[in-house]
Amino acid sequence: MSETTAPIGENVRVNDPQPGSFDPVEVTERLQLSPLHRFLGLRAVRIDTEVAVLEMPIEENAFGGTGNLHGGALATLIDVTSAMAASRANPFDFETHSLVTADLHVRYLGRPKGGDSVRAEARVVKTGRQLIVVATRVLDIEDRIIATGDFSSMLVPRRSPLRPDAASTDPSGPEL
């Protein structure tokens, strides 16, 4: 049973969500382990070897001071969706390695014209031994592109957390 409604900053325990899973329910449970992803309400829609699709609700947690979607929230959606695509395209041992963002370029092209969420669709462009390049589009409910992202990630050995006193929710999971 999942417990994914804990307040921000508190650990959430999920009953064995599998790292590298293609099941959107399991992937959403894993996303909820991160306070930032939980805060933004990120949800997996489709995960396979061709594409990763995540949604983010258009809600106050994702707004900037002007009452519109904050660029940082969109960049986070692009980063996480791109990492999902990269990690499925190049399987690796989650216990010994992590995929980390090496580069992220976001183009903000508009704002959603309606609906209650936006979705990011990420596709791998090239996979190398260490670098994986991904192209991502963020679309509104009417399939209008509101942002694009060029992303590259690097496969690195797992590292200790920055906060050694932090209780890791799943040390074998990817750093997404």
Write up this protein.
With 176 residues, this protein is an alpha+beta fold. The chain contains 3 helices and 6 strands. A hairpin with a 4-residue loop joins strand 1 (43-47) and strand 2 (52-57). The longest helix is centred in the middle third of the chain and has 19 residues, at 71-89. Mean pLDDT is 83; it is low at 1-18.
Report the biggest beta sheet as strand number plus sense, adding barrel if it closes. Answer: 6 strands, antiparallel
Number of helices: 3
Low-confidence stretches: 1-18
From the alpha carbons, calculate the radius of gyration and give it in angstroms.
Answer: 16 Å
* Order of strands in the sheet with most strands: 1-2-4-5-6-3
Average pLDDT confidence is: 83
| Alpha-carbon distance between the two ends | 22 Å
Helix content estimate: 10-25%
Q: What's the topology here?
A:
Blueprint: H1 24-31, H2 35-40, E1 43-47, E2 52-57, H3 71-89, E3 97-108, E4 117-127, E5 131-139, E6 145-157
Antiparallel strand pairs: 1-2, 2-4, 3-6, 4-5, 5-6
Essential attributes:
176 residues, alpha+beta, six-stranded antiparallel beta sheet, 6 strands, 19% helix, globular, disordered N terminus
